[in-house]
Write a structure and sequence with these properties.
Length: 568
Amino acid sequence: MEKTIEQDKGKSHQEFEKLLSEDLKNRKFKEGEITTGIVSKVGKKFVFLDLGLKSEGAIPIEEFKLSKEIDKIKPGSKVEVLLEKIENVGGEVVISREKARRTNSWKKMEKAYENKEEIKGVIVSRCKGGLVVDVESCLCFLPGSQVDLLPLKNFEHLMRIPLKFECVKLDKKRGNIVLSRRAILEKIRDYDRNKAIAKIKEGDIVQGTVKNLTEWGAFIDLNGVDALLHITDISWDRINKPAELLSIGQSIKVKIIKIEEGTKKISVGVKQLTADPYEKAINKYEVGKSYEAVITKVQDYGCFAKLEDGLEGLIHQSELSWTKKNIHPGKVLSTSQKVTVQILEKNLEKRRLSLSYKNTLINPWVKFTKEHKVNDVFEGVVKNITDYALFIAIKDSELDGMIHYKDLSWSEKDTELQQYKKKQIVKYKILEIDEKKEKIRLGIKQLANDPFEFFLNKNVSDVITAVVESTSKNGIYVNVGKKDQLHLIKKNQLAKDAENARISRFAKGDKVDAMIAELDKEKRKVTLSIKALEEEQRKEAVKKYGSTDSGALLGEILGPLLQKKNKK
């Protein structure tokens, strides 16, 4: 009997386990997911929940105290928890209320991030670079630059109070969430701005307050909307700084100039409230005529000159001097200086008045072309020396002329520059006057005859007579033509025979005949050779008086002929 009872108990136990397993299988409990449990008991340290599993789950009561839910928790209350383990080593269910709240918070944050929705949170502490925000137990990072519209040094007034934020970055893998309060404030500001802008239109005259001053303008507060008052729209007259006419807090009447469609930026003006004095003033002056003016401002690019109140024009750097092209305007004119200017151009639409100072002065180029002609010879002073030329200050003129090193001497060598010094007086000939390019080319070598002129009508193989000027180890230097240029006859060209090629047999003043062996008229190069002449003479002598087979020497053939020639 007892044995039968024991068998029945074992059988009932197996059936119960089977039914329980099937029930649990149908419920589809999964670890790591959120499920709902019913509070069965609230103890001093734990809150017990029935999840419909083999055993109840226990949650430390501190988890409810942190979230301030403990007052709402009582037997029968439904609570969402995270099922960490269905059964641990001890056969107990492991659940967490805090992790469930965090998981739900992440889901809400993901949804808010995707839809760009506002979320509520509380700033709980400071950290490097910003603040820590608690959003339903989810800790997020708030950069310092995203706290407010303007940078803040003190955040105490924002701590531990409910605030609205926008999720701007979410990295689930790293568990990073970045929030922005500034984005919310910008939306509010834009809404209020658009609401205020809708009440005004271009051309309206409104009252505003000077909010801030800069070097280039002022910001005007128009009932909560900022508008820009550029420095050029403050006054018809030119001013250096807005602070000259405006001050912070000043009430001012302005005209709406422009409202940009996309950005909704507002531009306002003060000078537009009065008639433009420029239009009336500019019609008094004619293009091409000269008027008195006063220099008001000197810049790197030119000078501003005032013809009358409210009317200024620009004298560009290029219109200051006929000769000084790259000079700073301050070295030509100075502030408050009275000058005569010529009207070059006036443009009412662009409010542009172009002036010229140099046109009221004598053009040195016109004067120079009247007083000087090509081939005229004058004296001047060496003003500057470069690697390629001399620059001559032309007498009684602001102009400079250039002498290229090739025009210094017929040798056309750059070493000729070394013979000249600054402030040295030189005589020159005018070679070219280019008024358009503003260039004057001068020359010194042109004052003397071209020594190469002697060879211009000569050809290769022509025989010339030269006079020995000096000797050297390389050969002899001879004068030809008008004796104003030396030519070297190299040692190997002095004679056909080595015995007669001795340099020592030549002395200064000796006359020698030589043949033009090479002649390049373009490059002005000539090669003289006595050897070539002797060879040519031998050929002619052999042809007329003898044969190469006879063994007669050139001296034997030509001796009698030369004696005969000398007697003559």
